Structures are given as C-alpha cells and as structure tokens.
Amino acid sequence: xxxxxxxxxxxLPGTGKTxxxxxxRMQIERGGKQVxxxxxxxxxxxxxxxxxxVFTYGEYESFLKTYPKSAPILNNIxxxxxxxxxxxxxxxxxxxxxxxxxxxFQALREYDAWKFPLDKYKEIALxxxxxxxxxxxxxxxxxxxxxxxxxxxxxxxxxxxxxPYTCLENFVHKLFDIIEPLxxxxxxxYRENTEVTxxxxxxxxxxxxxxxxxxxxxxxxxYQNHPKGAEGFKQFLRDYADFAKLLFDxxxxxxxxxxxxxxxxxxxxxxxxxxxxxxxxxGRKFFPQNxxxxxxxxxxxxxxxxxxxxxxxxxxxxxxxxxxxxxxxYVECLPIILRFEKSGHIVLTGQxxxxxWTTTGTVYKRKK
Length: 368
Description:
By secondary structure, the chain is α+β, with helices and mostly antiparallel strands. It has three domains: 6-44 and 118-276, 3-Layer(aba) Sandwich (Rossmann fold), CATH 3.40.50.300; 52-111, no CATH class; 293-366. 41% of the residues lie in helices and 22% in strands. It has helices at residues 17-30, 57-66, 71-77, 89-95, 97-100, 102-109, 118-138, 152-160, 165-179, 194-205, 207-217, 229-250, 265-276, and strands at residues 6-11, 34-38, 52-56, 79-80, 84-88, 142-147, 185-190, 254-259, 293-297, 302-307, 310-312, 318-323, 328-331, 336-340, 345-350, 363-366. The protein has an eight-stranded antiparallel barrel. Strands 2-6-1-7-8 form a five-stranded parallel sheet, sandwiched between helices. A hairpin with a 5-residue loop joins β11 and β12. The chain is globular. The mean pLDDT is 95.
C-alpha cells in the first residue's frame, strides 16, 4: 500500500461513497493495517459538525458559571481543542438529559455549530481539521478513510449561503494544506451526466427522500430563489456537481476520477486498489456458530435479529455480515463491528454513527 494515511471518498449522494469506503476498509485490514473509517455521519465526527455545540473557552467558562449543575457532565464529555470546546449534543440528549435538565440542554443548542455564520464556521472548522490531523499523526499505525467530509460537507455549507465558488475553493485549499502531512489521496465518483445520478437517487431513495432533504434545509438562503420541494433539491444537486468537479480539478494531491455510469463495480474496485497500491484479498470464511436469534438491549428498547450472515438492525434494514475474524463481523455499509461473545451477547465496536443503536460498546443480549 502507498504511504497515505488518509483516503477521502467524494461524490454526489448515490454514487457509492459509503459502499466503497466499506470495501476499502476490509481490503486494507486484510493486508494487516489498522483502519478507522469515519462515516459521513460518524459521531462525534472528527472533522464535520453534526449535532455539536461549539464554544470558545471564554464562552464555555461563562456557560458553566451560569449552569454549574452541568459542569461535571460537560467537562467529562467535552472535546477540548486549541481555542474551542465541542460538546456532542446527542451524547447529552441520549445519556444526560435527565441529569442536566431540558432548559440547560436547550441553552446548549444555542451553540449548535450548524447555526453559525459562515465566517465563524470557517474558523472553527480549520481548527477542528488541524486537531484531527494532530491526533492522526500520533496514531501512526492507523489509516483513516473519510467519506463526504472534504467536499460534501463544505459544498453544502457554502452553497446554502450562496457563497461564490472561489470562496469555497479557497477554503478547501486551506483544508488540504492542513491535511498534507497525512499524504492524502482523493477518490471522486461521478456520472458524466448529473441527471443520471439525480434519476438514480430518486428511483432508489424515493421522491419523498428528496422532499425530506428540501424540507430540512428550506430555510437556507440558497432555496429562496430556487424551486420548492424535490425540484429545488435537484437543482441543488446540479450546482453541487458543478462545484465538486471544479474543486477536484483545482487540487494538486494524489487523486483519481471514477466515472461510474456503466455500473462496472469490479472494474472500479480494481482501479481503486491499483491507485492505492492495495492487493485484492479474499476474506476468511467464518460463520456465526449457532448464533441465530433475537438480541435485545433492554435499556434502549432495541433489537437486532441475526440470521446466518444477515442481520436486521433496529431501524428495519437488512444488512449482510462479512467475517473479520472467528467472532467478529463487518456490518454492510456501516463502520461498526459486530462481535459475538461466549456469553451469548453481541457487543458493538468500531465507529458509531448518528443512529443510536450503533453506539460503541452497546451490548445486545440474546433472548431465550
């Protein structure tokens, strides 16, 4: 494998970023390296801002003085960076809401980074990326896979504010200056005709999905002068594609374009592996031994159903299990690892995402 420590996958929604992040993680680990796949909605996310309150140190000190009851909890879960403090809002909501109270939680939400003006976002984002790189350099044995962070999260933020492309490009170039010590590689998936990707997305996720995304973001300045509903989000995707291609062309890092219109994924996988200097390795064939059944976490009131090399996760999706070791299994398109214990329990490891059932360390006990 090449000496890159950071592999970034980008592309419009529905172009295979998550599926191929999953594929690369397995291939790299089969080669003996440790991998941390940072999913688009991993939490707490090391570079992007999903449900994260961000304070300056002065603001944080003032908040604790105003709400001293919250200090022991927040200090325990806070992410301290050079000049800012981050608080995972979902961690507070899910695990500490009863302790700190709804009024303090709502006060925390006023510092949600997603609400910040763009100039303030740029400052805290650059610092967060620098913090990520510093930690990655200290973990010399780990390879990081980031999907949708270097382009997608930034494009959404800048397009929403109607910022010109040049402002986005300048900012992303600053991010690349920060990550340069990790010798980054960029893989960009695209279809030459953006309308094909839009049609694919609508067919596979439904018009309701497009409308939901519009409803979520319709207050953003971008949508004030664009169509409403699904048609508005489709136009956003067209503008997104234009920005992303310009960004890709502007960067001087090691990079590869993969045009995926023909859907020849074995060919695309081979190109990725060759680009990264990774040997294609087959996994070992392990099967869960007598592990079929229903596994439940009583505290969360959630269940996982295991049926051979398939699970039904609590949100209803069926996902394949791919063996990692005799008792550990990759879960399809998720950065988590499902581990069967001799006690008959399942323990989740790896990287958690915004879905609560994926929380690292969660134990699911087999129902009798």
